[in-house]
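#lab-general

N.A. 3:47 PM
ok so I finally got the sequence cleaned up, no stray characters, all 70 residues accounted for. can someone with queue access submit it? mine expired

B.Y. 3:52 PM
send it over

N.A. 3:53 PM
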Amino acid sequence: MKIYRYFTGKDDVHFCARVTKALNDGYELYGAPTMTFNGTDVIVGQVVIKDVADESEVPQGLKAAMDAQA
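B.Y. 4:20 PM
back already:
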């Protein structure tokens, strides 16, 4: 099973820290980052994915959202 996460936010150290933590938790970058300007700030996005053995490793909030889609 794959876990998908899409981080978005201001292009700052906090965004970089969130992506760095995900990478250190076993996620891998997927695709190119996105970037836009909202008139004030540069907003960036990055997809990360992670292969997991089974649903027990899926974060609870994601698991609940997946169950609601079924």
